[in-house]
Amino acid sequence: MGGLPAALATSxxxxxxPAASARATIKASAVxxxxxxxxxxxxxxxxxxxxxxxxADHDGCDTRKEVLLAEARTSPSRYGSCSLSGGxxxxxxxxxxxxxxxxxxxxHFVPLSEAWGSGAWRWSYxxxxxxxxxxxxxxxxIAVSASSNRSKSDRDPAxxxxxxxxxxxxxxxxxxxxxxRWSLSIDRAxxxxxxxxxxxxxxxxxxxxxxxPIVNDQSDPSGTTGGSxxxxxxxxxxGLDPHFTYCYEAKSHGYGPYQRGIDPEYDxxxxxDNDGTVCE
Length: 280
Known about the structure:
Order of helices and strands: EHHEEEEEHHEHHHEEEHEE
Number of strands: 12
Helix content: 25-40%
Oligomer: single chain
Distance between the termini: 30 Å
Strand order of the largest sheet: 1-8
Radius of gyration: 19 Å
């Protein structure tokens, strides 16, 4: 198994603006350890709850076109509002190359249904829209062959890996990074598979993406009515930890775990076993 990942791209705080600044790297196993393990929510999902594709910067190109432009091996010509002509693309999942962008899908690296079951069910409509159009971290969306995207569907790494085995290491570390960025949980089978991949890949370093702003609002998943309950960039529930007295209080409210050197909340709580993680 090969393909150690190059440094993952980074971004400013807005999840729908192009990536920019450099960030620290950390071992993939350490990032994996920060992800809360929870059973997935398996009901209530609708693709309509994740509005895409949008033109966030109002330049005429929607999110799909932005990804195609960013990932082209040979740059296409752009004309009109944002029509593309020519160009070539390579699908990391299966090694397929195309000069016809219509044969490629833009894959949500963590599928929308997977995100829903891992925490997005509690998000506001605007937060789900931001996730579905996340240009703030270049690995959140990827142009791949339509056939490989349909094969993947909404499955996690315990259920599906790309046919291109040389991409497995990058696939695992990118999955971890996207889940970290959006404070999404993992289930036990998913964690075991990711851990196995990380070990077999030599525990590569991951360039941490910035935490995406999360607003929770379960009042209306369709977004036709609004309101918000919390916001911020913390772990667990998606909002900022209000600084509880004890870890058990933070955990009971859906916060944590916090990793030394990653989460500022780490310094608020006692690390009794000195393993670099609190409120796990």
